[in-house]
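Example protein
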Amino acid sequence: MGEILERVERKGLRLVAADLRVIDEGVARRHYGEHEGKPFYEELVRFITRSPAVVAVLEGPPGAWQVLRTLMGETNPAEARPGTIRGDLAISLTENLVHGSDSEGSAGREIALFFPGLPAEEQRA
C-alpha cells in the first residue's frame, strides 16, 4: 500500500482523503453494482470484503482519473506494461491490488459511497 500511494503522489496526484477499513458486503455490492450478474461479480465482492482495504480520494488536474488509470495499467496484470502498478505488483485479474474510477461520474459516485461527508467541492476533483 505504501508503494502504491508513493507512486500516485510521485505522479503529482494529491491525496485528499484516505481510510483503512473493512468494506461491508452492502457497500461492496453497491460499489460493483455495474457488474452484477456477470460471472466474476461474486468473486469481486468476496475479495474486497475479506480483509481491510485502503480507500482514498485523489485530486489533480482535469482528467486526473485518466492519469490514475494509466498509472495503474491494464486490469489484467498479464497484459499490464512494466512500470505500471499492476504490471509491476499484481498477479491476479480479480485481486489486482488497485482500483480506480473509470470516469468522472464513477469517481463522484464512488467518493460519495466511501466518503459521504467529504465536501462537494472536493468530490468534483
User: Anything to note?
Assistant: The radius of gyration is 14 Å. The longest helix spans residues 104-114.
